[in-house]
Amino acid sequence: GATSSLGAIRERFERELRRLPGLTFAGWNGSHAPGILSFGVEHRDPGSLVDYLATRDIAVKPFPPPETTSLIRLSWAPDLSEHDLLCAVRHIADWMATPE
């Protein structure tokens, strides 16, 4: 039950975020953690997005050095509400829409 709920939330997050220009999504072969979505931001500092979301009480994990990627990892619990999901997407969209 929890795995299916996590997977459904992942699909919804990805569907909503794919509507935003400038995001790239990390995919890989093999099993996926259903409660994690990794994405990058084109031509922007991902650390800035992490800081922006933190001021809105949304915690995301950047991949720290020495990782050579600029991905951000978004994760959630199986009881994440629709409202919270859409708020997170809106905050990411707002950040993407503001100039650096």
Using the CA coordinates, give the radius of gyration. 13 Å
Low-pLDDT segments, ≥5 res? none
Distance between the termini: 41 Å
Strand composition percent:
15-25%
Total number of beta strands? 4
Q: Please, what is the average pLDDT?
A: 85
What order do the strands of the largest sheet run in, or round the barrel if closed? Answer: 1-2-4-3
Number of helices: 3
Helix content: 40-55%
* Helix-strand category: alpha+beta
Order of helices and strands: HEEHEEH
Question: What overall geometry do the principal axes of the alpha carbons give?
Answer: globular
Largest sheet: 4 strands, antiparallel
Written description of the protein model:
With 100 residues, this protein is α+β, with helices and mostly antiparallel strands. The protein is 41% helix and 16% strand. It contains three helices and four strands; from the N terminus they run αββαββα. It has a four-stranded antiparallel sheet with strand order 1-2-4-3, with helices on one face. The longest helix has 16 residues, at 2-17. The chain starts with a helix and ends with a helix. The model has no long low-confidence stretch (mean pLDDT 85).
